[in-house]
Amino acid sequence: MNPVIGIIGGMGPLATCDLMQKIIEYTDADTDQEHVRICVDCNTNIPDRTTAILHGGKSPVPELVKSAKRLEAMGAQVLIMSCNTAHYFYDDMIPYLETPFLNMINETAAFLKWINTSKVGVLATDGTRESGIFEKALRNEEIQTVYPSEKNQKLLMSLIYDYIKAGKPGIENLPVQGILDEMWEQGAEKIIMGCTELPILFERLGMMNNDMIDPTVILAQSALRAVGKKLKPTALIELVRDGKLVSSDRTHQAVV
What we know:
9 strands
């Protein structure tokens, strides 16, 4: 029987599909039967994470745990979550779970440490930014963090909520490049796409490059390794877990 990866999804639906697609793309398989089984709960009942963190909105924890328990009942051997901001509630979920649950934020920080990064820019929702979850994980790895200005943060939130989540057209007409330029000007060596909608956005604009870190890629490959599946020889990154290199059978070439 093939191993089972469980995705706590719906945050948002496109980001959930993106994570699932990356798991499939990185799997070394020649037939349908050689792919990992993926169980997905695209739970759109999960309350908005940023609203919960910053404005006292309804806690997403009960729905997050419901999704996780449904996936456990379906046989998931490892759990992953397709939302950076939701990882603010990671520790609140752990007591209710019996299945290993990978933390995308910690995996990303450990990977950046491994490639000797000293300063990174973080593009994320207001909730992720204000919660400090990336900043804390990166500080633990002795990595400095820089963020967009207030003006560019507002533009970033609009890109995430108005254009990607809501499907509004016209993103190609917005000054998106300025957000990246601001990060480089602050000395960032890499930029974390700290919202799972952002890789979708920048790929759509043809702006992704090897200095832009996609945590979804890291999480997808971590999940495959966690269940013992072999990655394609063309997979572009090595995985780090708990600060230790999981495998060194390929040379690091790129991140996206």
